[in-house]
Amino acid sequence: MLKKGPIKYYHLRIFGCQMNKSDGERIDAVMQKAGYKPTDDEKSADIIIAVMCSVRQSAVDRIYGLSGRWRKLPAEKVLTGCVLEFDQNKLAKQFDVILPITMINELPKLITKKQSGELSIINYQLSNKNKIPCNYLSIPPKRQSAHQAYVPIMTGCENFCTYCVVPYVRGREISRPAEKIINEVKYLVKQGYKKITLLGENVNNYKNNRTIGQLDNGIVDFPALLKILANIPGKFWLGFLTSNPENFSDELIEVIAGEPKICNYIHLPIQSGSNVILKKMNRKYTKNEYLKLIKKIKKQIPDIGLSTDIIVGFPGETKKQFEETAEVMRDLKYDMAYIARYSPRPGTAATRLTDDVTREEKKRREKVLTEILKETALENNRRLAGKILEVLVEDEVNKVNKVSAKGGPASGWNNLLMGKTETFKNVKFEGPKNLIGKFVKVKVAKANEWGIEGELINNK
Predict the structure, then answer these.
(1) Residue 174: its pLDDT value, please?
(2) What is the DSSP letter of 262?
(3) 220-244 burial: b if 16+ Cβ within 10 Å, else e
(4) pLDDT band at 147 (very low <50, low <70, confident <90, very high)
(5) What pLDDT is stored for residue 171 in this prediction?
(6) What's the pLDDT score for residue 214?
(7) Burial class (CB in 10 A: 0-12, 13-18, 19+), 5
(8) Cα 441 to Cα 458: distance, rounded to the nearest angstrom
(9) Contact of 79 with 97, CB cutoff 8 Å
(10) Predicted TM-score (pTM) of this structure
(11) Which of 51, 52, 62, 127 has the most crowded CB, counting CB atoms within 10 A?
């Protein structure tokens, strides 16, 4: 613990996926336990902490840009998160402390040693070539929301897709003990959390050997874990991110279809619609296998919300191969797709391939897929017109001042609220602020490409 004295502040910047955001909540807990206060003002901070993501070049570029600005500030600068050794070496002079996220519990002590002169350079190797313990996940997080929570159930990945750095920065797959996950979710439900999202780089490959009840052989795999969690008493939604098509079993589909608390939403990356490109990516499924899986999912869960990840401009991707991806998007009519232009990541197998698709062509292909997505998302949302949906209210969008035709207030409310359905659709509607964090009923009045607008019909 820090000695008593003037209040010290830390500024936290998080880049990347939900796992990094979850890690950020643990950093908040560690820093605040040590006596630091959070601040949004980097200029007034005593410590600036960057949780980096080396997965995409765009996130890396933002860190490089910010680190140049931060060098002029007197605060101690800390780098952690998913950081490739290549990026770590390039950023070593811009940061005072560099350490793996698994060591974040040591940060206050290391800062104290650095400031006292006991340590002059603090730079730990961030590349995770060996097994990484996930016991840092047992640090109780400082939740950023009072009604939604991320719960990591595993970390790491062993798929070694040729474009991906995750196995190098997160290490091998390690599942948390099932008992700890179950107890954490029970606690969150008891505290009134309404949406709980299970996290893992390859979440549906979760497997733990701890015996729970009468499970066969004492093995708790992902479908079994989901079923246990879905049977915890209370009103809440249960979701998960991110799945791999290779590990999406029939049993998992049955559990999602059969458990009302599990959200009817699946994020299932395809990455490419070309078998040639999928093989180059080391994705262990074919286009037809993916399409059959989606057909099976939609048959058992007709109202499923479906999103995906796609990379355009992978080395060697021809225009014909790209058109195969575009055709898949037209056929499957995704609700959302996260489209990325390929960028080579140091140390991955794909860097040995020639990055031969021009930046302009990658941009064009991204635009083509985005236009397809706009059409299918709008089409899907229009089907909801007039329907009454259950929505978890997340936040207030902004103040609105609607006036009726007679010049008076349109209603007793002046707040535009936003929330999500269980299928992960954004919903905007007018209502009182005290609904934030609650489930409400909304009648769909208007469909947009990226969401829907509606009318509150029940605030009980």
Answers:
(1) 86
(2) B
(3) bbbbbbbbbbbebeeebbbbbbbbb
(4) very high
(5) 82
(6) 40
(7) exposed
(8) 5
(9) yes
(10) 0.89
(11) 52
